[in-house]
Design goal:
The complex is a heterodimer. In chain A, 74% of the residues lie in helices and 0% in strands. By secondary structure, chain A is an all-alpha fold. The longest helix of chain B is centred in the middle third of the chain and has 36 residues. Chain B is 76% helix and 0% strand. The chains are: A mainly alpha, B mainly alpha.
Chain lengths: 287, 317
């Protein structure tokens, strides 16, 4: 038992060293951490209330007091970006996590048991894949209405299929392995074999897919809030801030209202994608 | 071949039934009265007795019967009516679909050429500067929100330089294709960005995979010129998975068009869906969605045919 532990830890160490050497992935991780810390530490970094309307101070260009200017209701844009990051990142991470859980549970059940339940789950995933994700999301928004928790539900329900297929395929091949047969012969329960014996062997692609999903969901939230169907406009999110730029007049005259939130979304999503690509390079044994 | 096609089409039918049933029962759940979207508003208002009309239309029948009647009407091309404007959904779609298809097609062509082109060059010059640029483009392209990219190009090309219009599909009265071509430049490029990036990544990986195969080494060792190795031997094999991805990406184009159409006030299906959602016009939302899904299912048959034609290992069975 002790010996096994040292081998896993040296594996982890090697992976970690490989990860450290991957410059883009490290950069992605650093940017990710910095953005998360900045939005969590928003009250320290800015003294402005993101929701405080100040009609005496509307649409000011960036200055020393308001480093990213103020919006059309006189709210400080920098503060809104910091506080908005909390909601945007939260939605992205939680949706990716719950989508992954759905995909993993369905995928393991389908791959492990096979037969009718497998056919049924594969069919369901195919039906979901037939609709463009954006349209599926919009249809569900039209039924459930916008809002943070609804968005998370909608994103998880529409974003589990890739993970599902991946996990199912892994399970299909792994369940034939000797260690699974041995576990079964020992009378270990199916749930335990599925989640304790087989699942750890499929973790790498799952983690990579989840990272990519975080990036994807943050983009989706921004897009939905931009067209006015995401998070209610009273809450600051990255998409809601840029929502102001729907008119040509704003694009023309108030560049700070769309340029900074747009860049923040792009840089953050880019960082997450670098992280995902890096993880794939490091974790994929074929590399 | 015929047998293969029939089998594929037969396999598609249960899917279409399941999807249409989902759409129908979702519509049933909405607070919309079917009498408002099943018949034209003129007919509804001219009928004296709404209850008698309801009975004669069979709206009091069990749901399953109503579902099949609705499905039959759909197949005949009777899509029902918008509950907001009273226009027939078929008319709305006929009017708006060309705009969406036009945009999707142009950006598809653009992204195919650029994406596959740079992807191949990237793979051939692996770790060279083209590869570096290609890889950066590949990640940046999928990371920038499309609407943000749209705003930036509007600011640069429409507002700063004034070269191109910042929205809509054509100037009033100028309907000829070349008169309105410049309206399409910005939206089509914006829409092509994400797709180009994805295609570029797939092409590069697929080409790299093939270039490491033994038969390529064999071809090289026989002294076949390098360009011939790429074009005649590697290219064809590498492009097969790319083609599949290309066709599978079509739905993303249609989905992505919703945001793009909103940024550029493009009068297509996306803006119909968007305004229907704001107005709670469920029949329009659901029927358009169903049509999009049906179109995607049908195009997936083309994917199967294309793969079978390109890959000698797949037989029409």
């Amino acid at each position: 038992m002790k010996k096994q532990k040292t081998t896993t830890s040296s594996m982890a160490k090697r992976t970690w060293q490989k990860f450290l050497k991957n410059k883009l992935a490290m950069l992605g991780l650093i940017v990710f951490v910095v953005f998360v810390l900045a939005s969590l530490g928003a009250p320290i970094l800015t003294s402005f209330d993101p929701n405080k309307i100040n009609l005496a101070n509307i649409s000011r260009s960036p200055s020393w007091t308001h480093i990213l200017g103020t919006d059309r209701l006189g709210r400080d844009v920098f503060s809104r970006i910091l506080y908005g990051g909390r909601i945007s990142i939260f939605i992205g991470v939680v949706s990716a996590l719950s989508g992954t859980i759905i995909g993993v549970v369905f995928g393991s059940v389908a791959g492990y048991f096979g037969g009718k339940i497998d056919t049924l789950l594969v069919r369901i995933s195919e039906i979901f894949l037939t609709f463009p994700q954006m349209i599926l999301i919009l249809v569900m928004v039209s039924f459930l209405g916008p809002g943070i928790s609804n968005l998370i539900i909608i994103f998880s329900v529409t974003g589990w299929m890739t993970t599902f297929r991946m996990v199912r395929n892994e399970f299909l091949s792994l369940k034939e392995e000797t260690y699974v047969e041995v576990s079964r012969a020992f009378g270990i329960s199916d749930t335990s074999i599925m989640f304790k014996q087989i699942l750890p062997n499929t973790m790498s692609p799952i983690v990579v897919a989840m990272t990519i999903n975080i990036a994807n969901f943050i983009l989706q939230e921004a897009g939905l809030s931009f067209i006015g169907l995401g998070v209610p406009s009273t809450l600051p999110t990255w998409g809601n801030i840029i929502n102001a730029a729907k008119s040509v007049e704003v694009i023309r005259n108030f560049w700070w209202l769309w340029l900074s939130p747009g860049l923040v979304i792009s840089v953050f999503v880019l960082a997450v994608n670098f992280l995902g690509d890096g993880l794939r390079d490091v974790l994929d044994p074929k590399q | 071949m015929a047998k293969f096609l029939v089998k594929k089409i037969l396999a598609m039918i249960p899917m279409l039934l399941a999807i249409s049933a989902m759409v129908f029962f979702a519509l049933e759940l909405t607070p919309t009265d079917p009498i408002n979207y099943l018949i034209s508003p003129d007919m509804a208002s001219s009928a004296g007795n709404i209850e008698a009309l309801r009975e004669s239309l069979g709206l009091n029948d069990p749901a399953i019967i109503r579902y099949f009647r609705w499905l039959f009407n759909l197949i005949r091309g009777d899509f029902g009516y918008s509950i907001i404007s009273g226009t027939s959904i078929r008319e709305i779609i006929m009017l708006r679909l060309p705009a969406t298809l036009e945009l999707a097609l142009v950006s598809l062509v653009l992204s195919t050429i650029i994406g596959i082109g740079i992807g191949l060059l990237s793979a051939i010059n692996q770790n060279g500067w083209i590869d570096y640029v290609g890889r950066v483009m590949g990640v940046v392209g999928i990371s920038i929100p499309q609407f943000f990219f749209g705003i930036v190009v509007i600011q640069i090309f429409a507002i700063q330089f004034g070269w191109l219009p910042f929205g809509s599909r054509m100037a009033p009265g100028q309907t000829a294709f070349f008169d309105r071509l410049h309206f399409m430049v910005l939206p089509a490029f914006t829409m092509a960005i994400a797709m180009t990036a994805a295609l570029l990544r797939y092409t590069r990986n697929s080409m790299l995979d093939v270039l490491n195969k033994d038969y390529i080494k064999l071809a090289r060792s026989k002294g076949i010129p390098e360009w011939k190795v790429y074009l005649k031997h590697a290219f064809r094999t590498a492009l097969r998975p790319v083609l599949v991805i290309l066709i599978f990406r079509l739905p993303i184009l249609i989905g992505g068009s919703i945001v793009i159409e909103s940024v550029f006030s493009w009068p297509g299906i996306g803006s119909v869906i968007l305004s229907s959602i704001s107005a709670g016009d469920y029949p329009v939302i659901m029927v358009t969605t169903l049509l999009v899904a049906a179109a995607i299912l049908i195009s997936s048959i083309f994917v199967d045919i294309a793969t079978a034609l390109l890959d000698p290992r797949v037989r029409f069975e």
